Amino acid sequence: MSKEENVISDAKVKFRGLFDLNVVYANMNYWLVDIGYSEPKEDKYVEKVKPGGKDIEIVWVTGKDEDNGFFKFKIDIRFYATKVTEVESERDGNKLKLHKGDLWVYFNAKLVLNANNKWEEHGLMYKIYDKYIIRDKANQYKIELYDDVNKLIDELKNLLNLYNF
Predict the structure, then answer these.
(1) 55 backbone dihedrals φ, ψ, rounded to 5°
(2) Distances in whole angstroms, Cα of residue 30 to Cα of each of 14, 114, 145, 156
(3) What pTM value is reported for the model?
């Protein structure tokens, strides 16, 4: 049976202002696939139309296997956009259709050990393997996963700052 170890819990990016949700969605998807993660699976998409604008909730799950599937990087991303309205804005003489509202994006990351379930978790050999052989590699992978999520957060922040004008 696999074992999950938390690396990042509820890291949050908050933004209020103009943004293009379609561009954010596409760029984050592209970035994840570009660095070797699976195409994000959209577990949830809810859109509610309210008098003050739309409320949108999107939940993604993506992952990446390492060491023949023994380790798996698992990233969950939750998008919450509230009071979203479509507006036109002008930049450098070009009209842009953007969204105006509040955006929160939450990131959770876990390192899954024995993801391929080839080892009996409660067996003596697995305990020795886990404690003495792979623990250093697991710690290295935690750092790598932590770095991947923080780079994704930086990409998101940079993308959202493009719309500040």
Answers:
(1) -110, 130
(2) 21, 28, 17, 12
(3) 0.88
pLDDT value, residue 156: 95
* Cβ neighbours for 91, distance < 8 A, ≥ 6 positions apart: 165
d(CA 31, CA 28): 5
Q: Where are the domains of the chain?
A: 3-161
What is the C-alpha to C-alpha distance for residues 15 and 37, in angstroms, rounded to an integer? 25
Residue 163 phi, psi (nearest 5): -95, 5
Q: Is 101:86 a contact under the CB 8 Å cutoff?
A: no
Q: Which two tokens stand for residue 145?
A: 């996963």
pLDDT tens readout for residues 50-59: 999 999 999 9
* Cα–Cα distance for residue pair 128/103, rounded to 1 Å: 45
